[in-house]
Amino acid sequence: MEPTRTPILRSLQPPERLNTTDSAKCLRTPRTVSCWSDLQSIRALLALVAIAVAVTTLNFSWYGGSDAITNPVLLGTYELVTDLATDGRLVALIIDEGDRSTLRVRSLLDGQEITLATTDGELHQVALAPDLVVWQERPCPNCPGRVVAYRISTGKQVILANSADEQLPRAWGHWVAWNSRNGNDRLFVANVATPTMDVSVTYLAPPGHRLSDLQFSAGRLVWRETSEDGHWVIRMQHVAGSDSPRTLLQGTGEPPVLHITEGRLLIIDDALRVAALDQSTGGLTIGTSPSSRELVTSDDRYTFWVGPSPSEVGIDAVIGFDLITASRFVALPNASEIVRLASGGGWLLWLQRTAEDRVTLWGAPISDLLPTARRAAPEAEDPRWRYFPETGHYLANGFRAFWERFGGIESFGYPISEEFEEFDPTSGQFRTVQYFERARFSWQPGSPAAIDGVVLDRIGVELAEVTDLLSSRAFRPVSGTLDGMTGGNCRYFEETAHRICDAFLDFWLRHGFSTSVTEPSEVSALRRFGLPISEPFMTPDGTIVQYFERARFEYRASSDSAAVFAFGRIGAELLARRGWTP
Predict the structure, then answer these.
(1) Is 572 helix (H, G, I), strand (E, B) or coil?
(2) Entry's InterPro entries (predicted)?
(3) Can you tell me the distance from the alpha carbon of 150 to that of 217, in angstroms, rounded to the nearest whole number?
(4) Do 502 and 47 form a contact (C-beta atoms < 8 A)?
C-alpha cells in the first residue's frame, strides 16, 4: 500500500477579503493532576464498580475546536516586487516600477497602505521590527547606499548611516544592524531605543574580507565572511555582548545560504538542514533545497519553502516545518508561479506571478495552514476518503480502513488533524501520522507492530511524560503482590511493574483489537491499549483514571450507580500541547 497521504487537499480559494466564522467551542485544556486520593478508597470503589456493572458504557463526544475557516487574504496586485517583509502586523514591499523604486507599507489589520519612500535610484533590503521600518536606499543607481529608518509611532524618518556604502540592514527588537563597506567591511549596530540612536561598531573584518548574508534574530547576529582566496566562514555574535564572534561553519567553494531562528540555524546548500547553533556541522535534513533563496523563509518557529509535493508528482507545494516539534506538513498544496515567500508574527506571505510584470500578494495566518486547521467541506464525495464536518478533517486510504475496522469514533474519536509527517528520532526518519481524539496513527508498513500498515503510537506514555506524571506516586513501580486489593481480581505486568484490577481489568479485556475469533482477549487488549504504566488514581474532579501505553481509562460515577467508562482524549491533549490547536 502506498503511504496514506491525503490526496484531497484542494488549493485554497482566494476571496476578496478575510472571511472568518467563529465558534465558542474549544478544545478542553489538558488535565493536570494536582492532588491524590487515598489508594485504598479507590480500590474499594473499583471493587464495588466491578460488582455493580451490568453493562459498560463508552462515552464519546467531540468537544470541538475553533470553527474558524479562514481563506487566504488577497493583499494586492503590484508590479515587480523586489523585496518583501512582514512582522504579522505590517507588510513592507519594495516595488520596481521601471523608472523608480517605491517602498510601501500595508497594515494587515485594516488594509491601509502608505508609501514610505520613492526614488529614481534604488531601494533594497527592507526589514521590520516593533515600531520600525528599515531599508537601504541609493539616491541614484551608482550612489553609495545609506540605511534609513522610519519610526511608526512618530512618523519620523532618520538616516542611520550614509558615510560609506551601507548594506544589508537588519532589525530585531530595538536594534538595527548593517554592513558598512568602506575599505574594510565592518558591522554596525544601532540601539534605536535611545534618544540619540547610539551607533557602534560590533565587528571589523580583516583586510580583503567581505561580509554578506547578514541575519539577525533573538539578539544574535550571523554573517558570512569570505576571503580573497575563496575561503568562507560563518560567524555569530550577540548584539549587546562584548565576546568575540564564534565560528559556526567554514569551508571553500560555494557557501551555504543561512537563516537564523530562535536557537537554530537553517542551512541551505545541497539540501535544507536545521541545526542547533552549537551543532551546526550536522543537523536534520528537512527537505530539498529550493531553486532560489526567495523561496524559503523562517520565523521564530516555522520554516516554509517551495518544494516537490509529497502527494502529487510533478507539482510544487509550499512545505512547512515546525522547529519545535520536528513536524513537516503541506502548507499550500499548489505553489505554481509563487516567486517569493516571507513570514513573521504568525503570518505567511507569498507572491504569485500573474503576468510577466505583475504579481499578486497573498497572506494567511500560519495557524490556518497547520494540519489542525479546519478544511472546507468537499465539493463531491470520493470512495477513497471521508470528511467529518464535526472537526473539519479528512480520513483517507489506509488510515481510514484501520479506523473503520477497529472501532471508529467509539474507539479513536474523530480525526483532529490532517495527515502530516513527524520526525522519529529512533528510526531517524520522517513518518506519516494523523491525530485523533484518543489516538495517533502512524504509517509504518514495515513494522512488526503494524496492522495493515498502521501502528498505534504510545501516546499514553508521551502524554504522561510531557505532563510530568512519570515521577508521581501512581506511576511508581509496585510489587507483584495484591497488597490488599479487594477481591484479588488483578493482573500484574512485570514489564512495567503495574497492575490492572477489577472493573479496569474487565474494561481492558473487553475492548481490545481482535484479529481472529480464537485470539485471547489479553493479546487483543495489549495490541490496542498496551501495558499499564500507572496505578489508578483520582483527579481533582473526582474521575478515577489509569494510564496505559496507548490509552487512558476514565471512570466517572453516575446517578444510577452504573459504571461509566470512557477513553481519555489523550490525542487531543497531546496535540494541544504542541500549540497547534486554538
Answers:
(1) helix
(2) Quino_amine_DH_bsu (IPR011044)
(3) 20
(4) yes
Distance of CA 539 to the CA centre of its chain: 30
User: Between vectors from CA 464 to CA 301 and to CA 373, what angle results, nearest 5°?
Assistant: 40
Residues facing 119 on adjacent strands:
101
- Rounded Cα distance, 514 and 520, in Å: 8
Cα distance between residue 316 and residue 224, in whole Å: 30
Give per-10-residue mean pLDDT for the chain (582 aa): 38 31 28 38 46 32 31 89 95 91 93 92 92 92 89 89 89 92 89 84 92 89 92 90 85 86 81 78 83 87 92 89 94 92 95 89 94 90 90 95 94 96 92 97 93 95 96 92 60 95 93 82 93 96 95 84 82 93 71
Q: Which of 388, 439, 437 is nearest to 413 (CA)?
A: 437
C-alpha cell at 236: 555569530
3-class secondary structure for 186-251?
Answer: EEEEEECCCCCCEEEEEEECCCCCEEEEEEEECCEEEEEEECCCCCEEEEEEECCCCCCCEEEEEE
CA 496 to chain centre: 33
Strand bridging mode 439-443 / 113-119: unpaired
- Other beta carbons within 10 angstroms of residue 561's beta carbon come to 10
Which helix (H) or strand (E) element contains residue 89?
none
* Strand pairing class (564-567; 57-59): parallel
